[in-house]
Amino acid sequence: MAFPRVLLVVPLFTTSILGLYFLIQNAPPTDNQCRIKMAIPKSMAELMELNLCLRKHYENNYLYMLLLFSTVYIIKQAFCIPGSVLLNLIAGSLFGSVFGLFLVCTLSSIGVSACYLLSKVCGVETFLMNYFPSALTSSKTTVGNLVKNNEHQLWYLLLVLRIIPITPNWLLNLLAPVFSIPLWTFTYTTFFGLMPYNYICCQSGETLSSINSLEEIFTLKTTLQLTSIAVVMVVVKVASKFCKINT
Q1: CA 174 → CA 153, 170, 179, 193, distances in Å?
Q2: Is 121 strand, coil or helix?
Q3: What is the model's pLDDT at position 72?
Q4: Alpha-carbon torsion (119, 120, 123, 127), positive or negative
Q5: What is the pTM (predicted TM-score) of this model?
Q6: Which of 28, 99, 102, 140 has the fewest CB atoms within 10 Å, i.e. the most exposed one?
């Protein structure tokens, strides 16, 4: 019996987590001996505690903090782990909304590219063909024709999918190579498509150290910003009706 390639994700994920653990355990010392915990915050208090600890490391060793944050973000994206909003808030708090936005957009693009390549290496298409042959064949025919007949505006379609969450991002990341979507197009549309969402999170993160609850993040200013993003989404959706799509 052939070894199912999809199981390659286990050693790859394990190696990534061990590398992250090694990086955290070898963090440069801080004045108050703050130790970073390998755990996802489950409350606002835990998020604030983590942010305070990370800020101490940021002030003590900027390059280490940049390396650690980048590593966590890429692993999260590559292996479809939830938690983008928390990392985006922390990015805004540590690096500011401008550089934080550029950083998370770049890391998002790198991470989804890694997920794209993992999907190919680990044989996600073969796995789906073995267990869901009819559904995959039908989907490949439909989506494949859509991609082939709209190569000139594929970037636009992918951008709409990123801005308007019609499908979960993790599912899009895994299935992109299955439907022969070019990696480069997939990467740069991720960078720009996730920018509105990342911007709101990063800007909110700038005030993370001074808030006491999540409700304080959604001020009138951020509410208006979120509303403007929603308006953009509607405009893009309406505009797509005027963009001829060949099926």
Answers
A1: 21, 6, 10, 17
A2: helix
A3: 95
A4: positive
A5: 0.83
A6: 28
